[in-house]
Amino acid sequence: MKQPSTTFCDIKADINPKSWLSKYRRTSIVYLMKMLLFYHGIGLLFMLIGTSIAEKVISNYNDRSIPRSSLISVLAAGPIEETVFFGIPFYLFGNHLLVLAGGIVWAMTHILNTTRLDISNLAYANWLFVIPSLFFSLRTWISGKGWFAIVTHSIWNGIFFTLGCVSGEISCTAISVEKNLLTGGVGSLIVSALLSMLTYMLYKRKINTNGQRVAV
Asked: Range of 66's domain?
């Protein structure tokens, strides 16, 4: 009888919920893409089921997220969120549980991504989708591939932003400049760059402290 490949065995072990707080068994780009699709697939399933339940249980349910009109701010959200909630805590403390706590806070902020803060208008679909994603980001960072989490986060945001533009759901621009610089697309780009630099500095400090190379 033909034995299963080692890659299949690794994937089977990595998708087991018992391993969701541990490093990946492999960290090649192809392998990480499979893990990304796995966790995002679960997120889409959670979103569909959760939205269906919310519509039946909550009267006048209206899951309307705060719209973003700037592509730059959408793409900048990737490095901002990944560094603040995952990368910086990881390189500061090196504790998986503290990184998990940051991920939980990150996931909970998504339920507040709505135009009205009441029980019938909270962004349940958005929240349910990102719950599995927090485990992807957590495991990617502790596996030494934080840059991959940042890049895929931005790409994923860009895909959904583009779909919203094409469908006419939101009005879109490449970049927005507001009176308050920090609330506009340019401000988001600056903040994301500064946070990325800070994360890299913490990474370098970790290398110097440990006296060995640690992958970003």
From this structure: 28-210
